[in-house]
Amino acid sequence: MTKEYEKLLNQVRRLVKIADIMELKLKRVSQRLEEISNIDYLTNLANRRYFHKVLENEWYRAVRNNSSLALIMIDIDFFKSYNDIYGHVGGDKCLERLASVFNNTLKRTTDLVARYGGEEFVILLPGTNLSGARDIARTLNERVSSLELPHSGSTINGKITMSIGMTAKIPDLEVLPESLILEADEALYCAKARGRNCIIEYKTNDKLLLK
Q: Fewest CB within 10 angstroms: 70, 77, 178, 188, which?
């Protein structure tokens, strides 16, 4: 092997090594961009896009396992008034604090809390029936109440409160994952119609029960 050939071979090796490093860096950047695209910029919770992705995965996993899947939808009562009174900066701080409560309440890595839009949040609970979801919803409500965050624009009690709709079912292939959202959303709508600051369960017999 001539010195010139050896020198050329070493250059090729260095270029290959650089290419490998660049490929690894590009993979890391791509992974980071994917992570960022799944996160809500304000609350650092999962965003709506990622929630729908996880919902679909968990739905078909539950179909295979014949297990229950629960969904809780939360709306912060009179939040438009809150922004009007305390400003959007105050509103953002309030959402950040509530998001922290929601996230810290969930104990299992399989549970997912996401910001669904504005002042609305969703909590997906794999392997959880209506009773289990009810316990979590009540715990969330109690913890938010204990914060006693002032809200002079609320007609309830001058504090931040929540309306909560929830549902649970054993999925099957004849129904789309979005049906879980529709049920929880209907229950949430009923909670608002009942005067807010309450938890409504969507019953499998299509009746809504005040809790």
A: 178
Residues 70/130, Cβ–Cβ less than 8 Å:
yes
Please report, for the chain, the start and end positions of each structural domain, with discontinuous segments joined by +. Answer: 1-37, 48-210
- Report, as residue numbers or ranges, the catalytic residues: 119
CATH code at 48-210: 3.30.70.270
Flag whether the pTM goes above 0.90.
no
